[in-house]
């Protein structure tokens, strides 16, 4: 029976006198064809991309530079990482150019010159700012009043040590992960520059008008936290002067990105 079935399976074949050697030609041709196709069209298997578009093993232009390679000429900031590197422009005279983020920081000894009460500008609230901010802060306050809008100051200059307290208090309340995205670690806060204000009042009015008086929102919703390194803060404005504020606004970048692109 088995013999019969074997016979049937080969019923329509005729025996080739070359034996197994008859397969050599087609195999060689097949391999040659494959080599040609791979040479012409072959690509490595596609790598997988993460949600931000970075491909495994290949970093995008936006995310690739490390702080050191950026210092060597790259114009985009590195991804927001946690570190403690001295920020390059850290003289009080560099107040409009100093980059502060989750990596770059001011020394503990940095205390801005010329601190005066914010109330010198005729605005309600507490704290101090550098005197160089006062004229434009006064003009902003006057403009708000003319538009029937109330604004005030909740927090302005914070020393390194005040920032230690703010950060530790937030960690106690909400944990380290939340704190790192919400409160700058000591040395990393723009409040230490003496040119930064957390406003109260009509934040929508401020978003529209503050840049005209030299104040930019450091952590705008559409760039935060990915590029600004912190969660969005509609109340936190840093004074950079009217001309620079206009350029930052026009760029549609966060201040951090703009400074990386334009001041290094
Ligand atoms: N909330 C901002 C990031 C600061 O602490 O300076
Ligand atoms: Zn703030």
Describe this structure in words.
- The protein is an alpha/beta fold.
- The protein has one domain: Muramoyl-pentapeptide Carboxypeptidase, domain 2, CATH 3.30.1380.
- Helices cover 36% and strands 13% of the residues.
- The protein has a 5-stranded mixed beta sheet. The chain has a two-stranded parallel sheet with strand order 1-2.
- Helix 5 packs across helix 6.
- The relative contact order is 0.11.
- It binds D-alanine and zinc ion.
- The site of D-alanine has 8 residues, from strand 9.
Write the layout of secondary structure elements.
Blueprint: H1 2-9, H2 24-41, H3 67-71, E1 85-86, E2 104-105, E3 115-117, E4 124-125, E5 128-130, H4 131-146, E6 151-155, H5 160-174, H6 176-182, E7 196-201, H7 203-209, E8 215-219, E9 233-239, H8 242-251, H9 255-262
Parallel strand pairs: 1-2, 4-6
Antiparallel strand pairs: 3-5, 6-7, 7-9, 8-9
Helix pairs in contact: 5-6
The protein binds D-alanine and zinc ion.
Main sheet characteristics:
5 strands, mixed
| Cα-to-Cα separation, first versus last residue | 88 Å
Per DSSP E runs of 2 or more residues, the count of β-strands stands at 9
Strand order of the largest sheet: 4-6-7-9-8
Question: Averaging pLDDT over every residue, what do you get?
Answer: 80
From the spread of the alpha carbons, the general shape counts as globular
N-to-C order of helices and strands: HHHEEEEEHEHHEHEEHH
Low-confidence stretches: 1-17, 22-73
The molecules bound to the chains, other than polymers, are:
D-alanine, zinc ion
Which fold name corresponds to the CATH topology? Muramoyl-pentapeptide Carboxypeptidase, domain 2
The rounded Rg comes to 32 Å
Q: Total domains, how many?
A: 1
Proportion of β residues? 5-15%
Helix content: 25-40%
């Amino acid at each position: 029976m088995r013999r019969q079935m074997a016979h049937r399976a080969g019923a329509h074949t005729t025996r080739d006198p070359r034996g197994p050697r008859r397969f050599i030609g087609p195999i060689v041709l097949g391999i040659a064809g494959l080599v040609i196709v791979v040479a012409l069209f072959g690509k490595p298997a596609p790598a997988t991309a993460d949600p931000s578009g970075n491909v495994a093993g290949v970093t995008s232009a936006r995310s690739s530079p490390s702080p050191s390679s950026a210092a060597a000429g790259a114009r985009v900031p590195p991804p927001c990482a946690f570190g403690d590197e001295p920020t390059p422009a850290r003289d009080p005279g560099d107040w409009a150019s100093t980059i502060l983020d989750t990596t770059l920081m001011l020394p503990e000894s940095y205390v801005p010159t010329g601190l005066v009460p914010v109330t010198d500008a005729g605005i309600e609230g507490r704290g101090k700012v550098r005197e160089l901010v006062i004229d434009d802060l006064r003009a902003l306050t006057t403009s708000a009043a003319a538009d029937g809008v109330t604004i005030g100051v909740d927090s302005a200059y914070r020393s390194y040590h005040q920032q230690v307290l703010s950060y530790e208090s937030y960690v106690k309340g909400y944990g380290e992960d939340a704190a790192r995205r919400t409160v700058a670690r000591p040395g990393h806060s723009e409040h230490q520059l003496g040119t930064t204000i957390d406003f109260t009042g009509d934040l929508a009015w401020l978003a529209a008008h503050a840049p005209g008086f030299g104040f930019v929102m450091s952590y705008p919703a559409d760039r935060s936290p990915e590029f600004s390194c912190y969660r969005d803060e509609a109340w936190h404005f840093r004074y950079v002067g009217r001309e620079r504020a206009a350029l930052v606004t026009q760029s549609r970048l966060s201040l951090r990105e703009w400074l990386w692109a334009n001041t290094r």
